[in-house]
Amino acid sequence: MRLLYNIIETDMGWVAIAGIDGALARLMLPCNSKSTAVQRLTDAAGFDLAFTRDDFSGEAGNLESYFAGSPAAFTCNLFAPDAGPFNLAVWNAAREIPYGGLSTYAALADKIDNPRAARAVGGALGRNPVPVVVPCHRVLRSDGGLGGFSSGLHWKKMLLNLEKSLGGVRL
User: Fold this and answer.
1) What does each C-alpha distance from 34 to 12, 31, 42, 69, 144 come to in angstroms?
2) What is the pTM of this model?
3) Are the CB atoms for 153 and 160 separated by under 8 Å?
4) What is the spatial distance between Cα 82 and Cα 103, in angstroms, rounded to a whole number?
5) Nearest to residue 118, comparing CAs of 95, 148, 97?
6) Which of 77, 82, 96, 99 is a plausible cystine mate for 23, CB 3.0–4.6 Å?
């Protein structure tokens, strides 16, 4: 399989993205160097890839804006053939949370008509391959606590702070 990729310099560091046929498959949060971004992307793929450089111009511009602290609308399709219907439903519901907005795991479970699945929603968000595009950082526990984040809670706090949505969050 050949994934197209781009490494984008943002205000917060180098961001790596990869996709196929115009759909985004991976996004690596900012790091300090271009070579580290490429290595993290390769490591995260989980299988051998032949990377071909592509500009992903629309998403690259959106990511530059986002990491500069401006709202960005990510409308790209996702490439996640092994995700399964539950994960896709959770990710699509999370994509509806607006910039600067917050939701809870329980509210997302309700939104996908599975009100007893709050814990499973957290698991699905933990498998999100494209943080920021699927804004899992905007999902909190029902008590206002942060919950988890696959890239570490420091990233969740930074992204919420970037969006200025830390107001009622229990840290």
Assistant:
1) 12, 8, 13, 21, 36
2) 0.90
3) no
4) 26
5) 148
6) 77
Is 136 an active-site residue? yes
Q: Which amino acid is at 161?
A: N
Give the active site residue among 28, 89, 90, 136: 136
Give the position of tokens 């539950």: 86
For residue 136, what are its two tokens?
């899992």
| Residue pLDDT tens, the chain, 171 long | 677 888 899 999 999 998 887 789 999 999 999 889 888 888 876 554 555 666 677 888 899 999 999 999 899 999 998 999 999 999 999 999 999 999 999 999 999 999 999 999 999 999 999 999 999 999 999 999 999 999 999 999 999 999 987 665 665
